[in-house]
Structure prediction request, 315 residues.
Amino acid sequence: MNFDEKMGSKAQIWAVGGGKGGTGKTFLVSRLAITLAAQHKKVIVVDTDFGGANIHSFFGIKQAPKTINHFFEKKEPLENLLIETGIENLQVIVGDYRSISSGSLNVALKSRLFRHIRNLDADYIILDLGGGTGNDTIDALLLADRMIVVAVPEITSVENLYQFIKSTFFRKLKTVLGEHGLRDTVKDIWTDRKKYGIKNVSEMLQYIKNNNAPINAILDRELADFAFYVVLNKVRNSMEIKEGFSIRSICIKHFGVDTRFVGYIEYDIQFWKNLSLIRDLSKMHISQSLKKDVLFIAENIINGDQMRMTGIKNG
Ligand SMILES: Nc1ncnc2c1ncn2[C@@H]1O[C@H](COP(=O)(O)OP(=O)(O)OP(=O)(O)O)[C@@H](O)[C@H]1O
Ligand SMILES: [Mg+2]
Prediction:
């Protein structure tokens, strides 16, 4: 573990997404942020859930004096929108995307937002993404140095995760190839994959490489650090933990994408009960066991490490 590793001047961006709604993305964002801040790291959380911004609730912020709309509408710099959370080293930029009438960001606005996020002064910037596989969500994930994805051990959630990882990988390939005049290559080859005898995304990538030798070095470079960090949430027993390992092997086999199972969080029944009593997520009691789970996840993400089969607790 290496929280004290020199980060250089630029912040490291983490983004938490995952396809399905309600898996615990925002919850994980809040806990990762608190964990890193407790290690004396300067952390900024940005709510990039373009459809249902709610990170403020997890920090007990009732009414933010400024939201991201001040960036979109009044062109205020993002650093003016930082809201204190009451937790040392931890600030938030609260989301409020009501004014985006079309339901999605235009390209110029999006690249301006992303540029400003990159330039925020922090050790870690954590992006809370919305559910679904919309392009804005995927682009925010692709902005990150660490792409963290959350699933719960249920078939629909895991299927959504595969879809999300596949869509993200396709978009990444499209962007890289697009810069070299091969924009539609992925779509065209995938559509005709039977004709080429391609069975999965991994084989498609190999096919593209075999047939576009000049681009090989570029693809290798662009994909060298391309990895998904999988977190399993709301885990109820040790059998369910195994789902994390199987997500990892399936992603590697079918997509040919580096996928690391960085840890799991137990389903906290007490947390759920407390929620109905307290109604303020920031005041919720968090068990030591849950704190340990999140610390383990944070360490693995920082170190690019992952869970081992032997690391499974009994129960
Ligand atoms: N490990 C857990 N144990 C118990 N409850 C949890 C756990 N993780 C999250 N929750 C609860 O599940 C609900 C959904 O969590 P959260 O809002 O973080 O999901 P989300 O993935 O961000 O959803 P959305 O896609 O709508 O943004 C919340 O009420 C949260 O408190
Ligand atoms: Mg959320």
